[in-house]
Amino acid sequence: MRALRRRVRHQLRDVAARIRWEGPRTAVATSRTFQQLGRLCGSAPGRYGPFVERELSCADLRGAIGRLAALPAAERARLPGISAPRAAQSLAGAVVGHTVMKLTGLRTVTICSWALREGVLLRHLEDGPSWWAEIARLSEKETAAAEPVPLRIAASLG
């Protein structure tokens, strides 16, 4: 565990310093691993729907590390939220997540069930397939840095 934590800290120290300097107000975790860790730490189950607020605290995640480390992967799959296919990686995910939160000074993150895949799908639905062709064209020319495809900021519904 000590070596894993050291390795994660080493890999993330530069980006963590930048994030601390920028001082984000909101942090969102979008991976399935974070969803499962959030559930393990007491977040509402998925059956409550996508609009239920789910958060994961650094302190709760720290407690989950000890809980996960004490069990073999097969037994982790019996814990709330931890699926059998992801049970083996749940401990590493918890260590990485906790370390990121500590290094960046985040006390909590909001768990979001939507991630990159859903964003790509929504962009495709809104703009059709032409936007992806533009990304491919830029990639082929290796000029993506000179001609970035603009990102969209989602408008608040509230």
From TrEMBL:
Do you know which Pfam families this protein is assigned to? Answer: Ppx-GppA
In its UniProt record, a GO molecular function of this protein is:
pyrophosphatase activity
Q: Which residues form the Ppx/GppA phosphatase N-terminal domain?
A: 3-125
Top-level taxon: Bacteria
Q: State the family named in the UniProt similarity comment for this chain.
A: Belongs to the GppA/Ppx family.
- Which protein, by its recorded name, is this? Ppx/GppA phosphatase N-terminal domain-containing protein
Native species: Streptomyces haneummycinicus
Organism taxonomic ancestry: Bacteria, Bacillati, Actinomycetota, Actinomycetes, Kitasatosporales
